[in-house]
Design a protein that fits this description.
By secondary structure, the chain is α+β, with helices and mostly antiparallel strands. The protein has two domains: 247 residues, Transposase Inhibitor Protein From Tn5, Chain A, domain 1; 44 residues, no CATH class. It is built from eleven helices and 14 strands. The protein is elongated.
Length: 345
């Protein structure tokens, strides 16, 4: 089923030029061999998304097998229709082998990289140690295909890429020393760092959007949580396709509501289900009918009692209200009106 979702997602949408590779988590509190812990317990997945919208393009579940980083990246980008993409990734995926593979395949890439993977000489590491905040230094590979940008922020940031340049711009950072400017300090920053920052947030965008309206399915079956997670992804992907194809601005919540209404439309008439009454408090919606001197008296009983009207219709509903005249527990909305019209019930 997941493979079908991925194929459909890739066939219905052409992503923009910037893509993101990162990890994502599927929440699960049970026990499983390939369960991991990052921020919370669950399953880890390797995800390829569009950088701007978070549209999911490919997804690979971590199953405890020892895959190399190169094999993970190859599996994620193998089904792309074109190589005219810039792929951003964090330091977990960025290695010299991955950079060479993406470059040979025709992709552009940019990513942070661990300093022990850079293959720099000892003297170059010493140069990096003496950089001041905002300063940067650039190194080219021997074949001139890759550029290593080292920028000193609070610590040294290493970024490898096969695109970009050595130009330097400016960014704003919070600083305790800049009291006069509202603790905002402007420092120099290479363009490659800005490029990485704008291209590496696609997976975070996806996780953020589906977390707002989580299905929160609780089950002991581990695959149920994965299926529920994928239903949320499918809903979000379809929302992006709808907004970009129709040029309509609609929130993810309203889109979900419209999809749910369209799926259940006609089902109530087929099963003869009454419309769901609007749930209002007793203070805001006291009684629909007007009371007379000889009519029933409605009041709060407390506790949990079964509604007699619903029980007569073979339904089980709990209420805390009753008709004090006849001492009958009834629901606050429809059932009390039924009782007043039919006092024998």
């Amino acid at each position: 089923m997941i493979s079908h979702f991925i194929k459909v997602s890739q066939s219905l949408y052409d992503p923009e030029s910037k893509l993101t590779i990162d990890e994502s988590m599927v929440k699960y509190n049970g026990r499983r061999k390939f369960q991991v812990y990052i921020i919370k317990y669950g399953f880890k997945a390797y995800v390829l998304t569009e950088a701007t919208s978070g549209y999911l393009i490919n997804w690979d579940l971590h199953q405890g097998k020892k895959k190399t980083v190169l094999e993970i990246v190859q599996g994620l980008v193998s089904n792309l229709k074109s190589t005219n993409y810039l792929i951003a990734m964090d330091r977990f995926y960025s290695t010299i082998d991955v950079a060479e593979y993406l470059n040979d395949a025709g992709f552009r890439m940019v990513g942070t990289i661990m300093k022990n993977r850079t293959r720099l000489e000892e003297g170059q590491h010493i140069q990096i140690k003496f950089l001041e905040k905002g300063e940067s230094i650039f190194y080219f590979s021997k074949n001139k295909k890759f550029l290593l940008t080292v920028w000193k922020d609070s610590s040294a940031v290493h970024i490898i890429s096969n695109v970009g340049d050595t130009l330097i711009g400016e960014v704003e950072r919070r600083s305790k020393e800049a009291k006069e400017t509202g603790y905002i300090q402007t420092i120099t920053c290479p363009n490659n760092v800005k490029l990485y920052s704008s291209s590496s947030r696609g997976v975070d965008k996806l996780d953020q959007m589906i977390s707002y309206y989580n299905m929160n399915i609780k089950s002991r079956k581990w695959y149920v949580s994965i299926v529920g997670h994928w239903l949320e992804i499918a809903m979000y992907n379809s929302c992006i396709i709808f907004t970009k194809s129709t040029q309509q601005k609609i929130s993810f919540l309203k889109y979900q509501q419209s999809v749910i209404k369209s799926l259940i439309s006609g089902k109530r008439e087929q099963r003869k289900i009454l419309p769901t009454p609007q749930r209002l408090s007793l203070k805001s919606a006291p009684i629909i009918l007007e009371l007379s001197e000889e009519d029933c008296k409605f009041g709060y009983k407390g506790g949990k009692n079964r509604c007699k009207i619903c029980q007569a219709q073979n339904q089980v509903k709990i209420t805390s209200y009753e008709c004090k005249t006849h001492n009958i527990a009834v629901c606050i909305l429809n059932c009390y009106d039924i009782h007043r019209k039919n006092l024998h019930i």
